[in-house]
Amino acid sequence: MAQDPEKQKFETAIEDLEKVVERLESGELSLEDSLAAFEDGIRLVKFCNQKLTEVEKKIELLMKDKEGKLQLRQLDKLDKDNGD
Fold first, then answer.
1. CA gyration radius for the chain?
2. Range list of H helices, 63-84
3. Is 41 in contact with 18 (CB distance < 8 Å)?
């Protein structure tokens, strides 16, 4: 069973999620164990999404303007400015 996602790092959560997926794909788990693994996976996915959102917000806060001053810029705006 995976660690409590609230007490782990993003990288560890991703590794745990990969293990959960491998266990589910193996087809060797009972129905009850599959359900428990699936629930662990859902918790890990929510944790990872939360961490990614937090990092995205920090990146937006750290973007610099042309004069080198820190400026808040949305990531999707940055993509459009770069022609992506």
1. 18
2. 75-81
3. no
CA 49 to CA 6: how far, in whole Å? 12
Q: Which domain holds residue 40?
A: 5-81
Domain count, the chain: 1
pLDDT digits (tens, 9 = 90+) for 1-50: 455 545 679 999 999 999 999 999 999 999 999 999 999 999 999 999 99
Buried b (16+ CB within 10 A) or exposed e, 23-55: bbeeeeeeeeeeeebeebbebbeebbeebeeee
Tell me, what CATH number does 46's domain have? 1.10.287
Q: What is the pLDDT of residues 48-72, one digit of tens each?
A: 999 999 988 888 777 766 676 767 6
With beta carbons less than 8 A apart as the criterion, state whether 71 and 64 touch.
Answer: yes
Residues in Cβ contact with 73 at an 8 Å cutoff, skipping those fewer than 6 apart: 60, 63, 65
